[in-house]
Each structure stands twice: as structure tokens, then as C-alpha cells.
């Protein structure tokens, strides 16, 4: 599929009832109610706090793809993209070949308690992506049972990543990142990893037309406690998706489109081809993620007396806070000193002046500052 067609399909089928970062079972309930006339929807388990975990089944093909999102409750961008994708597949007749070749089994919110509380962990404060071996949590068991019952040929492990990540050691944010997880300590490039790498290579090729040099891959260090590594070790090609940052897109709406492009281009490829891993090598051309970004960097700050040795930078990261049902971004001082190796999604220049908090005191690490005082001027650090 051409990227222009995919972008047009996104605009037509975007699920406008889902937006920004806070997505819970309450938000998707009316969508599921509307979709039940078109696809199979079933409750496959409950969370720690007894909230339902839903799954959607669409398609009738032999190639089976298991997808799950919001394993980490505060990583919702991929959930939005999944509903955009479902809207597209049930409403676009010329894409019927995908549903004839593939069967999709989709868990849109695996961790509904974490989604409601907007936390990474579940209600027992457990990271479900480190529970693949212990299987100590009900949500982990739900995913394991879905995996064993559905017997997928591909797994899509859908996540979100912080604004700190870059695509290589560059000033390009990693708007989308992928990984074909390792399945042994040696990180052997196995046959099924090659299959995952081939699909990732196709998605990267498509994304380079949209977000050039803004795609990364994660370090593939092996950890069998992670779900992706566990499923890969069971010889099922598994792909980690990470929805990251695009310039000024803190609501992750443009990133949502990029994830949609990734999903649809991958399904088109899988439906049309016998994916055997032979075209895996371009995967290794994708740069590895680095942590090269802060949300704001204030450059050339006088950190004491006005001499060269006391001129440095102040780095700010936003804390994502759930306030009255909305996600607010609260600026917090992350680092002070020489930040030459880091980039700010927004940069300010103090021109060798001192910078103070609204209390008139010098900035300190861990301070939360909505405003700073620079040259007797009050400057907002909030998103515009």
C-alpha cells in the first residue's frame, strides 16, 4: 500500500471519540457497543479490581495475529490506533484481502486498573511486562491464556515510550520504535526473530516517508520475565511497538497516526506475502534508541557567580499527572550542569543570567516549576 492511501484511510476512519492520553475502559465501552454488530467481542477475564478485560476478533484468515495494548496503563497511544485500524478494516471493502488472509485477536486494554489510575503498573503495583514467568497477576494469566488458546503466528506487543528517547545519538526524537525481542541470552538472530525483523523493516520503510530518521529500535538484551521475550522464546515472531514523541505532540495524536501507518502497512505485507525472514537485514540499519532528550533545556544559565566555569544548563522533564480526569504536564527540574550532549524539545537561552523559581530562589533538582524568573521576566514552562 502507498503511504498516501494509508494516510487518507486514517483521516476517514480515525476514532474521534478517543483523544489525548487518558484512555480507560469507560472510554472504549461505547465503541465496543457499536462494534459488536460487526465483529466478535468477548470478555476474557478481569483485573485485580474486577474490571473487565475485553478482546476483539476480526477476520477469518489462516495467519493469526495477537495484539495487546495498555499492558502499561499509562501507554494509550496504541489503543487509539487500534480502534482507528478496526474502523478501517470493517468499513473498507478493498482491504477485505487482509481479513481473508488474517485473523486478528486484539486486547485493547490489558491493564484496565492501571489505565484508570494512569499508572504503568497494575492495582497490585506490579509491572505486567516483568511478570511473564511468575504469572502472579490476573492480567498476566489472561494474556497467557489468550496466547495459548489463539495460537498466534505473530504477536504485536503495543506500548508507549517517554519523550527522552532519540533515534540514535541525534536530535531526532524516536517517534516510533520497534524491537524483535531476543529469545536467548546470546541474542541469537533466530529464524522467528528474522520474521519479526522482516515485518519491522517493512514498517520502517513506510515510516521513513512520513517521519524520516525518527524511527528507532530498542536494545535487545534478553529478559525472560518480559512478555515479548517469553513469546519469542516460544518460537512465535513477536514485535514490540513503542509510540514515542513527535514535535509538540504531547497528546500523541500524530504519533497515533504513525502507529496506524505501521499497523496497516504490516498487515498488508503479511496478508500479501509468505513472511519467512529472508528480508530481515534492513532491520539492522535502524538506529538504536538513545536517551538524548529533555522536554525543556534552558541554556547558558549563570549557576553562581558570572564566570565561565559557572555557566551551565537546566533540564526540565514533564511529569504526567492525572488531574480531574485529564493528563496535565507538570514541569520538574531534572538536571543542572553541562547538558551539551542532550537536546530539548524546547530550548530557551538565559544569556548567562541567573534563573530563579517563582519563590525567588535558585532552581534545584526535583523542583516543580510552572514558571521561572529570567531577567526579571516571568516565563512559563507549561505546554503552549
Give a description of the structure.
The structure is a single chain. A hairpin with a 5-residue loop joins β1 (40-46) and β2. With 384 residues, the chain is an alpha/beta fold. An eight-stranded mixed beta sheet has the order 1-2-4-3-5-9-7-8, sandwiched between helices. Strands 13-12-11-14 form a four-stranded mixed beta sheet, with no helix packed on it. The protein has a three-stranded antiparallel beta sheet with strand order 15-16-17, with no helix packed on it. The chain folds into two domains: 3-291, 3-Layer(aba) Sandwich (Aminopeptidase); 294-380, Urease, subunit C, domain 1, CATH 2.30.40. The protein has helices at 3-13, 25-35, 77-91, 96-101, 112-117, 138-150, 191-207, 227-233, 253-272, and strands at residues 40-46, 52-59, 63-68, 102-107, 154-160, 165-167, 176-179, 215-217, 238-243, 289-291, 293-302, 311-323, 326-337, 343-349, 355-357, 371-374, 377-380. The chain has nine helices and 17 strands. It is globular.
Quick summary of this structure?
It is built from nine helices and 17 strands. It is α/β, with parallel strands linked by helices.
